[in-house]
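INTERNAL AUDIT FORM
Audit reference: QA-55
Scope: verify that the stored structure record matches its stored sequence.
Auditor: D.O.
Record contents follow.
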Amino acid sequence: MMTSLQQNLQTMVKVFRRECHRVLESQRTTICGADEMLMVLQLSMAEINKEENGEFTVLLSNLLVTWQHLMKDKLHLLHETSDAPENYNAIRKMYNSFLKSSNIVDLIDVYEMYDTLKTERDCEELLTPVQLLEFLAGNSDSCNVADVVIPPVPATPSNRQSLKNSKLPTVVICAYLKLLVNSKNDLAVAHVLNIPDRGLGRGAFTDLKHAARNTQTSLFLAATSFIRAIQLGGKGYAPSETDPLRKHLKGLSDFVHFTDNLEELLGEIPDPSFAGSRIMSTIKARLLKGRSSEDPLCAAAEETVQELRLRIKNIIHSQKEATNASTIGVSPARPKCYAINHSTAYGGRETVKVLLHLLDEEATSPPSRNKADLLYGDEGDMAEAGVSCILTLFRSPEPSTGSSPKSLRYRVLEHEGKTTPKAKGNPIRSQFACTYRDDPLVNKKTAAVPKS
């Protein structure tokens, strides 16, 4: 059930998407919703903590305090007596830098730009700053859903796994769609780099992150540049044999080739509805490869694809109605089929517009209630579901020592052996002295026996 507040938010986003070419360099800029805003803030705080204390981590309590301060600061709702969290200016700068480098704007940025972008036919004010703050904070009072009662469900391992299975297809499909329309989106790359499993874990992500930082490019461009250099470059242009990314050549090749296939579908199929359906079906097939039909993830993926297909059809229908309403009394334009090089000039353009509209709708979804599960989660359950904790993924792994770590059982027994007091006095001996021939006590006794 969509609330009036969410509908107003979507209307505001539609105006932004329609007029954003006036203020943005790229019309493929994507919008991050409340959950992604919190993830970016988490990464920003962890990066600042690493610079200050050497640890890439952040406490949930500190994160939520800074989250509230950031929202109020951007919406100009801070009191004069409000105290800023520690290192807030550096965190805010890091947050803005991440959004800019990823070609992303958040919902508060869209709200700020609405006054500039709205036209005479648009509403004067759709939302107040306080309403947007309450929506982003997940305050149920702002959602006008008092008549909807959600019974509490105990958090059990089966419930948590079922919830992850239901969310995973939406997260993966939307992340791939974001990557198609905005290749600079590093957060989208983090979500799908190793989904399905390509052997690209934390080590591969860290090497890719360092390569992108050294070349000052996005994660996706760093991966594609490396693979293109391997495929097309000669001896003078191929990456060095010592390049860390060579260890992950197979996985990165699979990732780049898969996104190439999606881009081909995007550009070659002129019908946006059919193109979107084919793209999502392709993603679903790769996600479920090797899984049995009885796997709960299969049913969740099929349900997600059907829902997204219906939403795409509704978007196309609403766009046609808006176009017909705006062209009443205007002489018909020359058909596009007569355009020069029509296939390359218009290939994928209409589909990109539809996908951006779909992703804009996702960005206006209410935030998750369980922040701890969203941001940290249980790594075992998340790994089993195929979703990586973003904070863990961006944290560089500890350097290898060349030997595998000792098992927990070994360390416990080793600790017990060190702390257990040794028995005093002479131990009980066997009747066979040869058993203890290297023992000092035995040697002392045998030395005292005279030779015959």
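Auditor finding: record pair retrieved intact. The mean pLDDT is 80.
Action required: none
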